[in-house]
């Protein structure tokens, strides 16, 4: 035997169960298999060894605790069988065959087996355990392959259960996660939740879809009762959901040495995953078979009654017994209550008994519920209302709410009111399971309030407030139908209904009113009036003149809180107000027509419904309602910005009049382009469009309550898509031209509760006057087709394409010919836009035929391509000088500018989209330059320069696109950007003469005063010229789908590591490249974006997800600052000032530094730049010095540009730097060893200092505005430095 045992290898030690193995010399061979039961205690060691050493051949080891029958099977005592049967009879879960139990090695072994089972069969591998828990629990679950997370359980401050933290952590757990729950004081802290807390835990576990795993070990020890300690587990078993229970019997049954335990699984799905058979006392898994659970006997064979019950579709046995075919049969009904199919198919809910319970004192029990959201906001913008019912007096309180989150503050105020006003504290609150009530659990506990909740999907248990909702709505609907008011007045009708109900007798109170029961005295009825009736309110003396009207024609809409007066609605001014001097006509109901009532009234602040309760809100002055939207033409009154002292319209601003005869412009009609057949002998001719068919517009307004609804085809009211209810759909076109598109609480398109951050809150234009608001609205919301398929259906752009083709034909741009062999024809396409006049009207829709020049080959299709275009620095420079010298600024546009250039190369182009020919070999041989060709800009600019020089202009060497005409005191400056001109001058007659000259040379279009140039929006006022890219920024935000996102206060995250990111690459880099490209263009008016755009531009080749998220953060920053731009002030200070800064070794890959500078002309920023240095700097001083050299070059160029405009700059230009070392190097004529390799830069800066061209000055880093361009800054520093640059945001949040 020893030779056999010597070959047995020691079993691996389980680090969790601490299972030990023993050498053969320590144990008798017959006990070799018993080593799996863990460490043997000294008492049992003596018993085992005494049994082994006893020489008697007939002996029985009682220490093992295992007894078998003569057949070798485990012996089950009769008392155990009876107990098992009694348990089966008392448990529905056992009756339903939902429970499977297996014996394990105590509670720890049960946890291990359950963990292995869940790791293999459960879809979620995350398990949550309490903190604290037993030390071996994390190892148990980790070794099984589960990921261990913790939820809060113990609060050291209170030395009790951290119930709020526990609910919060469980609520944040992913669906399907496993949760270990310790009952019966089994947690190391010995603390158990109460039964009420267990019920809340059960609700959140079931609602989140979590899987509970109970760990029980001291059943009977916690409360002294086995039954009481099992209540928490029975809650989870009773609701029919799945759960696992690890039970230890070692402690409460005195079997600690035997390590007795069990794992019980409550199978809700009852899906069989495996079975086994017993052989020699051990169960072996044999596959999926029918298993006996809990030793229950096998099912009896189906009787004849059961068989016929199944044949006839499971009727009731009472109905079955009455059938004639069974008159000779004796039916067996013993199985009638056990038919599982009948329960599944026909089980109904239990009848709700009538409740006769009633509180004995006021506020001992209150019922609460929230109604909403309603699809149409009320006059105050609310979409919910909270109802509170006192169980004793049946008094009702209603509060209008914009958000469900207001419930918490309202309930706190109500509890305080009941105590202070009535001397009764709220004792019990009954609600449903809404999170707006559950979040107050801590408050209820602190105040000693019992919070009762209804069962899930059982609103009948909160029936009193539910029935009160029906009562309130019945009265409110009657008020609305009687008064013929629009549905937007539902809030007023709800408040009035609650006021009336509290003063209406009810049989529940034996003919008394809720008011009388609560107060002890009957209410007064002399203040009651008919809701919605006509009335006349006396005009306040301060609001009238000697010959003005003495009254206001109004509607009665309710009873204000805390006032002996009535709430009125002025029919003429759309204003809510309160008055006591009112004359009523209670038999007249003028109502409000839906056609005239467009904008709902603004928010009311006094929301409570009765004058005998405290108000949670304060009274405010009456609020005015915007006038209804009308279709007036675009305004042409005063210009752009208001006075700098007051940036809001005043009484002197002309108010646009509304023309009732004005009709809206017809909607675009469908007119597809169809081309005629093109013959080789004839040139292309534009197609003719069929006659347009007008599109009928249906009314969007819903009928008023009480009025008959129009039926029939085409009469149904158009409603917004329910799929878009959570999206921002607010557009400036919904406001009149003189109104600001700022967010209005009353607007149905900006309902609070739908989107927390609507774009209308951040896109206000209220600081501008009416004319410029109309202009901004037009360019923001005007429609532009994205492709040929859209444009061909729009008659405006269809006509624009015809005009373009006609111009091309008249100019003999091409000849239709056959493509020669060996040649390739490049493609072409259409680009669409709108040209605007200075008053905001669309001058013309513009369609441009563009050749695909990216297919041209250098040296074959083109040679020279360079053509100068205006630098944005020059544009800002010219606008600043125009503001300072009060120059007139105009804009002109060239029709088909590129057609004026002749081509020398042989180029073939495919036929334009929309035209066809029967011969597929026909192409266009270009004779004139066309948009998109590589050589087109150069050809056009050469012809334009010749015309300008002939007029007497001088071309600037600093910017070749700038031309100046100076004659005596007359100066005229032209800035050219391809086919768009900026004309600035001090003499109107000279400007008009020059325009006439241009009209003779080219086909020009005069666009009036400069308003919109290359995406730049220009507004001029007494303070100066404001330049922004508001529409461009809004387009970026809309394209990224972030109109409803939360704005970011800064564009860049602090301490970002974008250069070292190792995230996943983007699947479609084109989206990232397009977004960054658009952000680059946005930096023309947004210097604060230079740094982050510089960083993002380095990852265009292979962008990653981190880079994309960083770009989206910039877009979120743009959402909050859409109207931000630069203010070019009109002050005459034209001194150049620069700020230079660097970030040493900013690039973690190349270790090259970052240079940046900002240049101001007077107080206006005109130039800025962020750029990575060409070489690695050996010190921060060297990096700063290189940045100063770049700034000096920019200052020299700007001074020469200033001289071209005829302005001398005799004083030295100031250069600020925050590095003392760099400043000393610039002033020191001796080159040190450490600066010899930057000698050229030293000469650049040092020579400028010695010649007094510049002066270097030190600035504190905290005040260095160039810091914005070199690094990410926290919000306070970012906002402070931004304000130093004169950056303005003309659309601050409302």
UniProtKB/TrEMBL annotation:
<dbReference type="InterPro" id="IPR012337">
    <property type="entry name" value="RNaseH-like_sf"/>
</dbReference>
<keyword id="KW-0808">Transferase</keyword>
<dbReference type="InterPro" id="IPR036397">
    <property type="entry name" value="RNaseH_sf"/>
</dbReference>
<dbReference type="InterPro" id="IPR001584">
    <property type="entry name" value="Integrase_cat-core"/>
</dbReference>
<keyword id="KW-0032">Aminotransferase</keyword>
<feature type="region of interest" description="Disordered">
    <location>
        <begin position="617"/>
        <end position="636"/>
    </location>
</feature>
<dbReference type="InterPro" id="IPR057670">
    <property type="entry name" value="SH3_retrovirus"/>
</dbReference>
<dbReference type="Pfam" id="PF00155">
    <property type="entry name" value="Aminotran_1_2"/>
</dbReference>
<dbReference type="GO" id="GO:0006520">
    <property type="term" value="P:amino acid metabolic process"/>
</dbReference>
<feature type="region of interest" description="Disordered">
    <location>
        <begin position="731"/>
        <end position="752"/>
    </location>
</feature>
<dbReference type="GO" id="GO:0005739">
    <property type="term" value="C:mitochondrion"/>
</dbReference>
<dbReference type="InterPro" id="IPR004839">
    <property type="entry name" value="Aminotransferase_I/II_large"/>
</dbReference>
<dbReference type="GO" id="GO:0015074">
    <property type="term" value="P:DNA integration"/>
</dbReference>
<dbReference type="InterPro" id="IPR043502">
    <property type="entry name" value="DNA/RNA_pol_sf"/>
</dbReference>
<dbReference type="Pfam" id="PF00665">
    <property type="entry name" value="rve"/>
</dbReference>
<dbReference type="InterPro" id="IPR025724">
    <property type="entry name" value="GAG-pre-integrase_dom"/>
</dbReference>
<protein>
    <recommendedName>
        <fullName>Aspartate aminotransferase</fullName>
        <ecNumber>2.6.1.1</ecNumber>
    </recommendedName>
</protein>
<dbReference type="InterPro" id="IPR000796">
    <property type="entry name" value="Asp_trans"/>
</dbReference>
<dbReference type="Pfam" id="PF25597">
    <property type="entry name" value="SH3_retrovirus"/>
</dbReference>
<dbReference type="GO" id="GO:0003676">
    <property type="term" value="F:nucleic acid binding"/>
</dbReference>
<feature type="domain" description="Integrase catalytic">
    <location>
        <begin position="358"/>
        <end position="522"/>
    </location>
</feature>
<dbReference type="InterPro" id="IPR013103">
    <property type="entry name" value="RVT_2"/>
</dbReference>
<keyword id="KW-0663">Pyridoxal phosphate</keyword>
<dbReference type="GO" id="GO:0004069">
    <property type="term" value="F:L-aspartate:2-oxoglutarate aminotransferase activity"/>
</dbReference>
<dbReference type="Pfam" id="PF13976">
    <property type="entry name" value="gag_pre-integrs"/>
</dbReference>
<dbReference type="GO" id="GO:0030170">
    <property type="term" value="F:pyridoxal phosphate binding"/>
</dbReference>
<dbReference type="InterPro" id="IPR004838">
    <property type="entry name" value="NHTrfase_class1_PyrdxlP-BS"/>
</dbReference>
<dbReference type="Pfam" id="PF07727">
    <property type="entry name" value="RVT_2"/>
</dbReference>
<dbReference type="InterPro" id="IPR015421">
    <property type="entry name" value="PyrdxlP-dep_Trfase_major"/>
</dbReference>
<feature type="compositionally biased region" description="Low complexity">
    <location>
        <begin position="649"/>
        <end position="664"/>
    </location>
</feature>
<comment type="subunit">
    <text>Homodimer.</text>
</comment>
<feature type="region of interest" description="Disordered">
    <location>
        <begin position="644"/>
        <end position="712"/>
    </location>
</feature>
<dbReference type="InterPro" id="IPR015424">
    <property type="entry name" value="PyrdxlP-dep_Trfase"/>
</dbReference>
<dbReference type="InterPro" id="IPR015422">
    <property type="entry name" value="PyrdxlP-dep_Trfase_small"/>
</dbReference>
<comment type="similarity">
    <text>Belongs to the class-I pyridoxal-phosphate-dependent aminotransferase family.</text>
</comment>
<feature type="compositionally biased region" description="Low complexity">
    <location>
        <begin position="620"/>
        <end position="636"/>
    </location>
</feature>
């Amino acid at each position: 035997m020893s030779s056999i045992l010597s070959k047995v290898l020691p079993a691996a030690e389980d680090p969790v169960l601490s299972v030990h193995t023993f050498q053969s010399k320590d144990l008798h061979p017959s006990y070799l298999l018993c080593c799996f039961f863990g460490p043997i205690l000294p008492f049992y060691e003596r018993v085992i060894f005494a049994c082994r050493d006893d020489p008697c051949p007939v002996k029985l080891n009682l220490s093992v605790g295992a007894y078998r029958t003569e057949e070798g099977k485990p012996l089950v005592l009769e008392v155990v069988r009876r107990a098992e049967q009694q348990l089966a009879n008392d448990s529905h879960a056992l009756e339903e065959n939902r429970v499977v139990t297996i014996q394990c090695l105590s509670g720890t072994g049960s946890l291990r087996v359950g963990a292995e089972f869940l790791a293999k069969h459960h879809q979620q591998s995350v398990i949550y355990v309490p903190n604290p828990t037993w030390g071996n629990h994390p190892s148990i679950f980790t070794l099984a392959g589960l990921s261990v997370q913790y939820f809060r359980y113990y609060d050291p401050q209170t030395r009790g259960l951290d119930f709020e933290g526990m609910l919060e952590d469980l609520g944040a757990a992913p669906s399907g996660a496993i949760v270990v729950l310790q009952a019966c004081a089994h947690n190391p802290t010995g603390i158990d939740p109460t039964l009420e807390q267990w019920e809340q835990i059960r609700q959140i576990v079931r609602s989140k879809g979590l899987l509970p795993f109970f760990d029980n070990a001291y059943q009977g020890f916690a409360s002294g009762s086995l039954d009481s300690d099992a209540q928490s587990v029975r809650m989870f078993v009773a609701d029919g959901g799945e759960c696992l229970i690890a039970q230890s019997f070692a402690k409460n049954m005195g079997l600690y040495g035997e390590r007795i335990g069990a794992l019980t699984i409550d199978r809700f799905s009852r899906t069989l995953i495996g079975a086994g058979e017993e052989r020699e006392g051990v169960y072996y898994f044999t596959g999926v078979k029918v298993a006996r659970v809990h030793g229950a006997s096998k099912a009896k064979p189906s009787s004849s009654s059961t068989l016929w019950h199944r044949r006839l579709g499971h009727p009731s046995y009472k109905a079955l017994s009455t059938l004639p075919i069974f008159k000779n049969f004796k039916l067996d009904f013993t199985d009638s209550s056990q038919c599982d199919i009948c329960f599944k198919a026909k089980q109904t809910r239990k009848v709700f008994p009538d409740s006769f319970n009633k509180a004995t004192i006021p506020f001992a029990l209150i019922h609460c519920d929230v109604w909403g959201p309603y699809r149409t906001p009320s006059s105050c913008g609310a979409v919910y209302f909270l109802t509170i019912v006192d169980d004793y007096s049946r008094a009702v309180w209603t509060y209008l709410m914009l958000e469900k989150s207001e419930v918490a503050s309202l309930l706190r105020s109500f509890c305080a009111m009941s105590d202070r006003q009535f001397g009764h504290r709220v004792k019990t609150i009954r609600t449903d399971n809404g999170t707006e009530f559950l979040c107050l659990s801590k408050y209820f506990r602190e105040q000693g309030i019992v919070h009762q909740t209804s069962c899930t999907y059982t609103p009948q248990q909160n029936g009193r407030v539910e029935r009160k909702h029906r009562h309130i709505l019945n009265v409110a609907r009657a008020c609305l139908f009687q008064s013929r008011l629009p549905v937007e007045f539902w809030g007023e009708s709800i408040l009035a209904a609650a006021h009336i109900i509290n003063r209406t007798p009810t049989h529940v109170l034996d003919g008394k009113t809720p008011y009388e029961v609560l107060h002890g005295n009957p209410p007064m009825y002399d203040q009651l009036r008919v809701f919605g009736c006509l009335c006349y309110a006396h005009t306040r003396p301060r609001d009238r003149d000697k010959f003005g009207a003495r009254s206001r024609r109004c509607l009665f809409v309710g009873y204000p809180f805390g006032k002996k007066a009535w709430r009125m609605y002025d029919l003429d001014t759309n204003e809510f107000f309160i008055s006591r001097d009112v004359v009523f006509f209670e038999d007249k109901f003028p109502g409000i027509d839906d056609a005239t009532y467009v904008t709902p009234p603004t928010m009311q602040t006094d929301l409570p419904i009765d004058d005998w309760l405290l108000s949670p809100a304060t009274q405010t002055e009456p609020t005015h309602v915007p006038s209804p939207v009308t279709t007036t033409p675009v305004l042409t009154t005063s210009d752009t910005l208001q006075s700098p002292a007051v940036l809001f319209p005043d009484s002197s601003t002309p108010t646009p009049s509304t023309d009732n005869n004005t009709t809206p412009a017809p909607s675009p009609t469908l007119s597809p382009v169809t081309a005629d057949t093109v013959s080789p002998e004839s040139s292309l001719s534009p197609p003719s469009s069929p006659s347009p068919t007008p599109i009928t517009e249906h009314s969007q307004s819903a009928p008023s309550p009480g009025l008959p609804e129009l039926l029939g085809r085409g009469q149904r009211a158009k409603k917004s898509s329910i799929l878009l209810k959570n999206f921002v759909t607010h557009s400036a076109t919904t406001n009149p031209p003189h109104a600001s598109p700022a967010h209005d609480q009353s607007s149905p398109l900006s309902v609070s509760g739908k989107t927390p951050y609507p774009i209308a809150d951040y896109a206000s234009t209220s600081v501008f006057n009416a004319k410029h608001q109309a202009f901004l609205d037009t360019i923001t919301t005007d429609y532009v087709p994205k492709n040929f398929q859209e444009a061909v259906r729009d008659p405006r752009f269809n006509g624009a394409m015809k005009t373009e083709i006609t111009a091309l034909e008249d100019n003999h741009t091409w000849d239709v010919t056959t493509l020669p062999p060996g040649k390739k024809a490049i493609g072409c396409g259409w680009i669409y836009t709108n040209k605007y006049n200075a008053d905001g009207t669309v001058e013309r829709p513009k369609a441009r035929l563009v050749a695909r020049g990216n297919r041209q080959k250098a040296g074959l299709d083109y040679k020279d391509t360079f053509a100068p275009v205006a630098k944005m620095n020059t544009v800002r420079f010219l606008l600043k000088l125009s503001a300072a010298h009060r120059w007139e600024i105009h804009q002109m546009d060239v029709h088909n500018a590129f057609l004026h250039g002749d081509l020398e190369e042989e180029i073939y182009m495919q036929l334009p989209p929309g035209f066809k020919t029967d011969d597929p070999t026909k192409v266009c041989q270009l004779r004139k330059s066309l948009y998109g060709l590589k050589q087109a800009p150069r050809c056009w600019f050469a012809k334009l320069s010749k015309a300008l020089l002939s007029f007497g202009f001088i071309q600037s060497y600093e910017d070749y696109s700038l031309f100046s005409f100076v004659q005596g005191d007359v100066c005229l400056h032209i800035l050219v950007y391809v086919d768009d001109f900026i004309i600035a001058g001090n003499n109107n007659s000279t400007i008009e003469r020059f325009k006439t000259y241009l009209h003779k040379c080219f086909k020009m279009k005069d666009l009036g005063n400069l308003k919109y140039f290359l995406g730049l929006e220009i507004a001029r006022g007494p303070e100066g010229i404001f330049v922004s890219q508001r529409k461009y920024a809004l387009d970026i935000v809309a394209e990224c789908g972030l109109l409803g996102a939360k704005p970011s206060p800064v564009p860049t995250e602090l301490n970002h590591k974008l250069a070292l990111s190792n995230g996943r690459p983007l699947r479609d880099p084109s989206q990232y490249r397009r977004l960054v490209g658009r952000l680059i263009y946005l930096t023309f008016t947004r210097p604060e974006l230079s740094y982050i755009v510089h960083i993002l531009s380095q990852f265009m080749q292979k962008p990653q997800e981190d880079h994309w998220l960083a770009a989206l953060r910039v877009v979120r920053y743009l959402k909050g600052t859409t109207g931000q731009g630069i203010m070019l002030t009109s002050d005459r200070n034209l001194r150049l000032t620069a700020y230079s800064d660097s970030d040493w070794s900013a690039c973690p890959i190349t270790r090259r530094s970052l240079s940046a500078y900002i240049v101001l002309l007077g107080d206006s920023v005109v130039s800025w730049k962020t750029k990575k240095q060409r070489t690695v700097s050996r010190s921060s001083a060297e990096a700063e010095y290189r940045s100063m050299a770049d700034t000096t070059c920019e200052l020299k160029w700007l001074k020469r540009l200033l001289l071209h405009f005829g302005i001398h700059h005799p004083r030295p230009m100031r250069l600020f730097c925050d590095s003392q070392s760099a400043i000393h190097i610039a002033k020191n004529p001796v080159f040190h060893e450490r600066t010899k390799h930057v000698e050229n830069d030293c000469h650049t800066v040092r020579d400028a200092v010695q010649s007094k061209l510049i002066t270097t000055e030190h600035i504190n880093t905290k005040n260095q505005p160039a810091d914005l361009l070199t690094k990410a800054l926290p919000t306070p520093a970012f906002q402070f430095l931004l304000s130093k640059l004169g950056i303005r945001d003309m659309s601050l949040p409302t």
